[in-house]
């Protein structure tokens, strides 16, 4: 799952694949602003058939947090 999400992040926001690690912070390490994050999450929701409400998104800081959330909330 990490590789698929990494590739999606690279494609959606244009960061280098080497920067996308499990511990990478969307805001601090990848410089992804809230609009980019929102757009990326919309794509992830479709790709993984999961809904990520905004209040949950506020608690997702790293790529690892996002992967754990998706794994725990997939239908």
Order of SSEs: HHHH
Biggest beta sheet summary: none
CATH domain class = Mainly Alpha
> Care to count the β-strands?
0
Shape: globular
**Structural class estimated from helices and strands:** mainly alpha
Name the CATH homologous superfamily.
Answer: ACP-like
Whole-number total of structural domains: 1
Which band does the percent of strand residues land in? Answer: under 5%
End-to-end Cα distance, whole Å, is: 15 Å
- Counted by DSSP, the helix tally is 4
Brief synopsis:
This protein has four helices and no strands. The chain is an all-alpha fold.
Describe the protein in words.
- The chain has 75 residues and is mainly α.
- It has one domain (2-73): ACP-like (Non-ribosomal Peptide Synthetase Peptidyl Carrier Protein, Chain A), CATH 1.10.1200.10.
- It contains four helices and no strands.
Task: From the structure above, extract its key features.
mainly alpha, single chain, 75 residues, 4 helices
Compile the SSE list and pairings.
Blueprint: H1 2-13, H2 34-48, H3 54-57, H4 63-73
Helix pairs in contact: 1-2
């Amino acid at each position: 799952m990490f590789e698929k999400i990494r590739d999606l992040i690279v494609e959606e926001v244009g960061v280098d694949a080497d920067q996308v690690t499990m511990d990478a912070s969307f805001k601090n390490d990848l410089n992804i602003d809230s609009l980019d994050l929102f757009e990326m999450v919309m794509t992830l929701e479709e790709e993984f058939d999961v809904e990520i409400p905004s209040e949950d998104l506020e608690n997702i800081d790293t790529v690892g947090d996002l992967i754990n959330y998706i794994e725990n909330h997939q239908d």
